[in-house]
Design goal:
With about 200 residues, the protein is mainly β. Helices cover about 10% and strands about 40% of the residues. The protein has a single domain (about 30-190), classed as Sandwich (Jelly Rolls), CATH 2.60.120. Strands 1-2-3-12-7-10 form a six-stranded antiparallel beta sheet, with no helix packed on it. A three-stranded antiparallel beta sheet has the order 9-8-11, with no helix packed on it. The chain binds manganese (II) ion.
Length: about 200
Amino acid sequence: METREKFDWERGCVIPFDLFTGKADGIPMIQRRLSDLAGMFSDEAAYEKALEAGDPVVYEYHAIEIPPTDGDLSFGYSVLYPGKVGKEYWFTKGHYHEKLYTAEVYHCLKGHGMLLLEDRRGDWKTLEMKAGDIGYVPKGYAHRSVNISDSEPFVTVFAYRADAGHDYGTIKTKGFRKILLEESGQPMIADNPKGMS
Ligand code: MN
């Protein structure tokens, strides 16, 4: 089958994602390693120590080339592995949409995680997700996935307006206001010591 037919955004198509690994034939998987998250964890000493021990893959996702129009939907598969830097659970970089008026859905297929949300006015919220749950990220909110399991990957399928655009810079510069730490085996929300309001 030709690639053009396989991914026929004009007339419809099916993408056969592997339910457990998220891999799909013909779709590149983008990996983010610990070194890609430099400066984002709260405990810098623990981060440096973790990097010395290796540079593990923290998460993987797909960037599918869907036409970036206001009538198309972009979607993909995300696998966030379990791990911590110090007490802080592994997370995705997180981002705002460039078009702040666009929302997103995340469907959890496996694992146990949180969606960490915040908006520019200072509101924030966490959405706890287990397999089967669909989380709604409202328009105007930055979002980050956090894996709060100590053993399982947090696997989600996401979908958003294809022309939403991604703004990673704001979060990279300012950080999220809240972070998720493990305390006595339980997730705990704390203020980000590096975050600016
Ligand atoms: Mn998004």
